[in-house]
Amino acid sequence: MKLSELLAVAGGRADGPAADAEITGVASLHDALPGDVSFLANPKYAKQLASTKASAVFVAEDCGLPPPAAGGALVRVPSPGLAFAKAVPLFTRPPVVRAPGVHPSAVVDPSARLGRDVHVGPLCWIGPGAVVGDRCVLEAHVAVADEAVLGEDCHLYPMVSVRERCRLGKRVTVHNGTVIGSDGFGYDTKIGADGSIAVEKIPQLGIVEVGDDVEIGANVAIDRARFGATSIGHHTKIDNLVQIAHNVRTGPYCGIVSQVGIAGSTHLGAGVMLWGQVGLAGHLEIGDRVEVLAQSGVAGDLPAPGLYFGSPAVPKREALRQMHVPRAVDNLKAEVAALRARLAALEAATAGA
């Protein structure tokens, strides 16, 4: 399509006489060829703008960089990433749509209730008393256990398990291999008078409740509560390989990135952001709009909004100051060593005189 037609969908204003440029695809700045549209959202890649072969590049409205040397147009928009996201579906194959129906190999208990236009894929299992809402899609090998409930328009990808009595809200997406409602880590260890050790499992009798418009990545484990509910708030987004323990509660609009681990009974407020490999101890209270940077360890409550970093996590400004302490100590040691050398030289010269 013409660039002018693309801008009618994605928005923006093209610099220069480029409205008739022919756009045939989308690509990154590095990989783009003539005919492609690309975008610059991260200043880290600003150097690639000069050399890209893209015919058009979405940039921020206040971008002060020159257009590509190859002659591509700069398209100024409020959000380059969002504009590019609107452009991508115009040049890629549409997503796969599953037709309503139950595959012959699926096992659906007679007491389960399926809503209208539900797709149940090969080798799925829907247990006794389970409820699957209208227009849900269950891909191959999905298990929905006894009395579990799925709201309308949920999409569960292959090998997802929703354990007994757990509840998913509306428009929940769960990616491959995730388990919702596995047992929490609860054991009672007793040491006898003779030194023997007995380990007894503590029953995990609660459920998991997932709010509306939640997306959960691949190979995530969300444990059922010991009693009550482990709760995931509305609009929360969870990345791959995340572990959420029993009785954790998250507020709405949280972001939990890959390899995060949250120990039992920790509560997150609204809009909390946990970046990759953050670890949270149990029984903590994390306030609204707290953001914990990657590889931090949270050992205590973080009630105030802001950026936190380190292990134990502290406000980012304090963490950066702590990081500079070893360098300052090294510099001080070098300075002391130099002063000692000068003092030794002066003592030697004085003794000789």
Classification by helices and strands: alpha/beta
User: Which sheet architecture does the biggest sheet show?
Assistant: 12 strands, mixed
CATH fold call of the largest domain? UDP N-Acetylglucosamine Acyltransferase, domain 1
Helical percent range? 10-25%
DSSP summary, beta strand count: 37
Give a description of the structure.
The chain has 353 residues and is an alpha/beta fold. The protein folds into three domains: 3-90, MurE/MurF, N-terminal domain (Udp-n-acetylmuramoylalanyl-d-glutamate--2,6- Diaminopimelate Ligase, Chain: A, domain 1, 3-Layer(aba) Sandwich); 101-315, 3 Solenoid (UDP N-Acetylglucosamine Acyltransferase, domain 1), CATH 2.160.10.10; 323-353. It contains four helices and 37 strands. It is flat. The chain starts with a helix and ends with a helix.
Layout of secondary structure:
Blueprint: H1 3-10, E1 13-14, E2 25-26, E3 36-39, H2 46-51, E4 56-60, E5 73-77, H3 80-87, E6 101-102, E7 107-108, E8 113-114, E9 119-120, E10 125-126, E11 131-132, E12 137-138, E13 143-144, E14 149-150, E15 155-156, E16 161-162, E17 167-168, E18 173-174, E19 179-182, E20 187-191, E21 197-201, E22 207-210, E23 215-216, E24 221-223, E25 229-232, E26 237-238, E27 243-244, E28 255-256, E29 261-262, E30 267-268, E31 273-274, E32 279-280, E33 285-286, E34 290-292, E35 297-298, E36 306-309, E37 314-315, H4 316-352
Parallel strand pairs: 2-3, 3-4, 4-5, 6-9, 7-10, 8-11, 9-12, 10-13, 11-14, 12-15, 13-16, 14-17, 15-18, 16-19, 17-22, 18-23, 19-24, 22-25, 23-26, 24-27, 26-28, 27-29, 28-31, 29-32, 30-33, 31-34, 32-35, 34-36
Antiparallel strand pairs: 1-5, 20-21, 36-37
